Write the structure tokens for this entry.
Amino acid sequence: MSTDTTIRPDTDRATSTANGPWVNDGKKPSASRLRTTGRRRSVPYLLLGVLLVLACVGGFVLISLNSGDRQAVLALTRGVQVGHVLTIQDLRQVNVAVDPGVAVVGADQAATVVGRPMATSLSAGALLTPDAVGGAALPASGQAIAALALKPGQFPAEVGPGARVSVVFVPGQAGSAPSPPADGGTVWPAVVTSVTTPANDQNTVVSVQLSEPAARQVAAVPAGQLSIVMLSAGGR
């Protein structure tokens, strides 16, 4: 009795051996490798979080320091003109950070300024300074103040104390003789010191500070022949 024995090549094993590296590469990474990668990726976020916390703490410290430098000082509740006698209703307390070189009136010194005249004109919200109270600081040396009676349309509605303006000569209407200044000047630079509208009067009185010669010329111009042009802060 004969037995046929067929020897088959171990192709499966060879194939497995040949493909071994590729099979291994296709396997899922181990759990330990995943945990290591996750930790590496989370490190930058942790550092970013620490930096944000430090920034917030630093900002809080700066705000606290600045708040500690604030002082209670006096400010105006409304605009006041030169010569106005201060009342308690004109003042309010504000807490502000003040530089060492800036002179202000402390809130605890209100009694020393109430009842005293203003030496200059200030707008609402302005901080009160020691120099702003007392004898009139206007006009300055070599300057004079002229009053202009102006009708609506002869001055901008935005004009107020401290505004830089040009006082302009306007010739009379047709049929009336113009009255130019004697020296031929028609424009004068000035600074507004006050604006007042008397009751039951269509005219508004705008007081302006000019050089003494210019003030004399402006005062000599007949009423109705002057207008005001408002300039920028650095205008001429």
About this structure: The two ends are 133 Å apart (CA to CA). The first strand starts at residue 70 and ends at 76.
